[in-house]
Amino acid sequence: MTTTDARTDSATQRIRHVTVIGAGTMGSQIAMVSALAGFDTTLVDIAQLPLDRARTQLWERVDRDVAKGRRTAPDVAAAKQRLTFSTDRDTVVSGTDVAIEAAIEDLAIKRELFASLDAVAPTHTLLVTNSSNIVSSQIADATRRPEKVCNMHFFNPALVMECVEVVPHERTSPETVEAITALAQAFGKTVVRLKQEIPGFVANRLLNAIRREALALQEQGIAEVEDIDRAARTALRHPMGPFELMDLVGIDVVYLIRMAEYEQTGDPESLPAPSVKELYEAGQYGRKSGQGWYSYTS
Ligand code: CAA
Q1: What is the span of the domain harbouring residue 251?
Q2: Ligand 1 in contact with 46 (CB < 6 A)?
Q3: Are residues 30 and 69 in the same domain?
Q4: Do 259 and 143 share a domain, yes or no?
Q5: Sequence-separated contacts (24+) of 172-176 with Cβ below 8 Å
Q6: 263 and 228 share a domain?
Q7: How far apart are CA 172 and CA 176, in angstroms?
Q8: pTM of the predicted model, to two decimals?
Q9: Ordered per-residue pLDDT tens for the chain, 298 residues
Q10: Which one, of 111, 274, 265, 142, lies nearest residue 200 by Cα?
Q11: Which ligand 1 atom is the nearest neighbour of the CA of 207?
Q12: Are residues 110 and 240 in the same domain?
C-alpha cells in the first residue's frame, strides 16, 4: 500500500477494504484509484451492464498507462486483481471498512441508500459521499452513525485530478476526518479540508462562478461557445474552457447539481441556466452521449 507518513499509516491501518457505490464516470475511476493505491476494492452497482462497461473502460485506461510508461505492468496487474465488481451490495458492504457513495445527485435516494448501508455495514465502517452539493449533514441522520459520515469529494477525471475535498458536518468525529484525509493521501491525492459545510465546497464554487459568467455571455449573444472556451484556454491557461468542461463532467451532472443546490437553498439563483436545462431535457449530456455543447460523433 502506498502511504506517505506515520499519521497516514495509523489512520488508515483499519482500512483494508473499500467499497465504491455507483459505476458511473466518477465511481468507476475512484474505485480504480483505490485499487491502484493497494486497497482491496469492490465497485458496486444495481445492474451488471454499468459494471461491465466500467471494467472495460478502466482496463483500457490503465493498459494505456502501461503502454505509455506511466505505470508498471505488475502494478496494474495487481490493481486489477484487487478490484472486483458486484451487484450484491449488502454482502460487499457487510465486509467493508469504508463505503464511498458516488451515486446519483438526489437527496431522497442518498438518504435511503445510507440507511441501507448503515443497516449492514460493520460498526467501525465509515460511510462517505462523493457529492459536492449534497452536504453530509443532510444524509448523516439517516444512519445510526452520524459521526462516521462526511463528504469525500473527488474531481473528474478522478484518475488524474489531484484534489480531494474532505468536508465534515457538525457531528462528524475528528477521527473520521483524520481517517478520510489519510485515505485520500494514501490514494495519492492532495486534500483540501473545509472547516464547515457549504454546498459546492471550495473548488466547485470557484468553477460555478466562471461557468455562470460563461453561460451569461453565451445566452446574451456576446460570444460563441467556442470563443468563450478559447479565451479560457489561451488567455487564462485553463486546461479546457467552461463549456468543454461541462461536456466532460456531464450536462446531466451539471443540471442535477444545480437542482440539488436549489432544493437546499430555495434560491432561484441556484437553478440551472436555461441553456443547460434545454440540453438536459434533450438528453444531450456531453461526451458520454455524443452530443452536448460540442458534437463527439466523429
Ligand atoms: N479519464 C482518465 N484519464 C484521462 C481522461 C479521462 N476521462 N482524459 C484524459 N486523461 C488522462 C490520460 O492519461 C491522457 O493521456 P492519454 O490520452 O495519452 O492516455 C491525459 O490525461 C491527457 O489527456 P488529453 O491529451 O486528452 O488532454 P489534456 O492534456 O487536456 O488533459 C484533462 C485532459 C486532464 C481532462 C485536462 O484537460 C484537465 O485537467 N481538464 C480540467 C478538468 C477539470 O477541471 N476537472 C474538474 C471538473 S469539476 C468536478 O469534477 C467536480 C464535480 O463535482 C463535478
Answers
A1: 203-281
A2: no
A3: yes
A4: no
A5: 172/136, 172/140, 172/146, 172/147, 172/148, 173/147, 173/148, 176/126, 176/147, 176/148, 176/149, 176/150
A6: yes
A7: 7
A8: 0.91
A9: 443 343 345 566 689 999 999 999 999 999 999 999 999 999 999 999 999 999 999 999 999 999 999 999 999 999 999 999 999 999 999 999 999 999 988 899 999 999 999 999 999 999 999 998 899 999 999 999 999 999 999 999 999 999 999 999 999 999 999 999 999 999 999 999 999 999 889 999 999 999 999 999 999 999 999 999 999 999 999 999 999 999 999 999 999 989 988 888 899 988 999 999 999 999 999 999 999 999 998 6
A10: 265
A11: 48
A12: no
Q: Give the domain-ending residue among 193, 223, 255.
A: 193
The cell for 244 is 468543454
Q: How far is the CA of 157 from the centre of ligand 1 (A)?
A: 5
Is 238 a residue of the active site? no
CA of 29 to the centre of ligand 1 (A): 12
Question: CATH no. for residue 209?
Answer: 1.10.1040.10
Cell 459505476 appears where? 23
Residues 32 and 100 in one domain: yes
Same domain (yes/no): 178, 244: no
Whether residue 159 is found in the same domain as residue 235? no
Question: Do 213 and 180 have their domain in common?
Answer: no
Centroid of ligand 1 to alpha carbon of 140 (angstroms) = 32
For ligand 1, is residue 205 a contact (CB within 6 Å)? Answer: no
Q: Is the peptide bond before 157 cis (omega within 30 degrees of 0)?
A: yes
CA distance 109 to 88: 18
Is 77's C-beta closer than 6 angstroms to any atom of ligand 1? no
Asked if residue 131 has its Cβ within 6 Å of ligand 1, the reply is no
Among protein residues, the one whose CA lies closest to atom 32 of ligand 1: 239
Last residue of a domain, one of 165, 193, 221: 193
> What CATH number has the domain bearing residue 96?
3.40.50.720
